[in-house]
């Protein structure tokens, strides 16, 4: 599929579009979409690792809490889409914390490949994991 997409892009390049213009339009610019910085003084953002009770090894998620939280607060579970725990999902968790909520964004792909560094790894995960496997990661690993 990547080769087919590349050949299609090659045809567009022949029409006068530059490859840089085309690829920048296809790849999300997470930095431009960030609304709350990870080091904002009003929040505390950390990565939390946890054991998987169903034998998937270790899980990881992104936990963000308001820094001045003194009482119990509602918790929001932020579920990522097929690209894993990417910068946009982390920003959503930070935005929730800025509104006084505790936000936790588990990384369903972490037990398979660890911290994702490339879109190639995300694509491998998408092909390897079925919907029931992902549901098991989210629900059983997080003890819901």
UniProtKB/TrEMBL annotation:
Residues 61-113 form the Dienelactone hydrolase domain. One of its GO terms (molecular function) is hydrolase activity. It comes from the Bacteria. The keyword Hydrolase applies. The keyword Hydrolase applies. Keywords: Hydrolase. InterPro entries: AB_hydrolase_fold, Dienelactn_hydro. This is Dienelactone hydrolase family. It comes from Vibrio variabilis.
